[in-house]
């Protein structure tokens, strides 16, 4: 069928996602290395509680979530699909405490495109909320959830890690099994079919193969095994599976990367980033905006080492829609790729095809980073939290809706000058927090765009890519 023969398409009004990635044991590392603040005597008899410390951050399409000390979860940004978990669909310009998760011993938070997940300390309970189409919430239906709900199908399985893509999710159990659910049009669930799954299902391909961690892109998935092997499956048109071609895979297939073992992996929208045991950074897949960091704007069908960071030991990676970030063991942060909204954080809005260092006030070292769709969030070793990039929906958490192209501190989490630290609390949640709006109500009918010229629209969006890549 030619482009002119295509009827108007139903396209989600905002198919945005993020894929923050760090190792499953990252929380223990973060907690053990964060400095402990000293309480100051303010000359009163009142006991002054130490400020909350941000332990983890995760960035979604246009929303953000943080886990703080004291078992506090906060969210902010776009709330249109209930992804903030406050029982409504309002945006929040400032971090707001998620009351529904009080006293739930949450130790991990993960953002998908327009949905969010949290995991309890025991690993026995995983909560999900937000946009529910394709069954991405794992509750057995397509309903939205405006407040966190436990995924009953995962109860008792001892979940170690959860990864969220655009419309599908993956999890790893403490027994090293892998489960998947949600959208499966291109085989991203790894089940050997293209049928969506409304409930978590075990990926049989990994039977007897202990998996260490997983990551999810828009419509592709990756996994790292305990012995350091890398697997890819799902949508592969840009080479984002690393298998040397542009074919989809319905089942996980092993990726070859020199002779190194792989320890970390992250997915962007259509690209993949991984780290070897020697700290070397590799990337492959979609490269049109320089998001692979190889000094060009080309796709790469197999993993290729990022040469400009060859003298660095990479300890953490994260991928956005069209940009990437890498953190070194010495606390340096590097970014590259699409930079229209300043999401790389280097003080300009120019795309960059090679990694550039992001500078922070007082040369603070970075402890954690997470890429959203068009924004980025980082936690420094001193405990401060910074954000930059797109801010139109309040996803930067600074009370404004303007973009920033350099790291800007989120005052609500500020440790420097923490006497003014204040975090709002959401109102009591409704009993169900469920929205039953149908999928058809959530789409907008738009004319199908025809490719021309450079392939970019006026807003920098693709016009020559599959329909699922066209953003409005």
From TrEMBL:
<feature type="domain" description="RCC1-like">
    <location>
        <begin position="52"/>
        <end position="263"/>
    </location>
</feature>
<dbReference type="Pfam" id="PF00415">
    <property type="entry name" value="RCC1"/>
</dbReference>
<feature type="repeat" description="RCC1">
    <location>
        <begin position="124"/>
        <end position="175"/>
    </location>
</feature>
<dbReference type="InterPro" id="IPR058923">
    <property type="entry name" value="RCC1-like_dom"/>
</dbReference>
<dbReference type="InterPro" id="IPR009091">
    <property type="entry name" value="RCC1/BLIP-II"/>
</dbReference>
<feature type="region of interest" description="Disordered">
    <location>
        <begin position="421"/>
        <end position="472"/>
    </location>
</feature>
<feature type="repeat" description="RCC1">
    <location>
        <begin position="228"/>
        <end position="278"/>
    </location>
</feature>
<feature type="repeat" description="RCC1">
    <location>
        <begin position="279"/>
        <end position="330"/>
    </location>
</feature>
<dbReference type="InterPro" id="IPR000408">
    <property type="entry name" value="Reg_chr_condens"/>
</dbReference>
<dbReference type="Pfam" id="PF25390">
    <property type="entry name" value="WD40_RLD"/>
</dbReference>
<feature type="repeat" description="RCC1">
    <location>
        <begin position="71"/>
        <end position="122"/>
    </location>
</feature>
<protein>
    <recommendedName>
        <fullName>RCC1-like domain-containing protein</fullName>
    </recommendedName>
</protein>
<feature type="repeat" description="RCC1">
    <location>
        <begin position="176"/>
        <end position="227"/>
    </location>
</feature>
<feature type="repeat" description="RCC1">
    <location>
        <begin position="383"/>
        <end position="428"/>
    </location>
</feature>
<keyword id="KW-0677">Repeat</keyword>
<feature type="compositionally biased region" description="Low complexity">
    <location>
        <begin position="426"/>
        <end position="440"/>
    </location>
</feature>
<feature type="repeat" description="RCC1">
    <location>
        <begin position="331"/>
        <end position="382"/>
    </location>
</feature>
<dbReference type="InterPro" id="IPR051210">
    <property type="entry name" value="Ub_ligase/GEF_domain"/>
</dbReference>
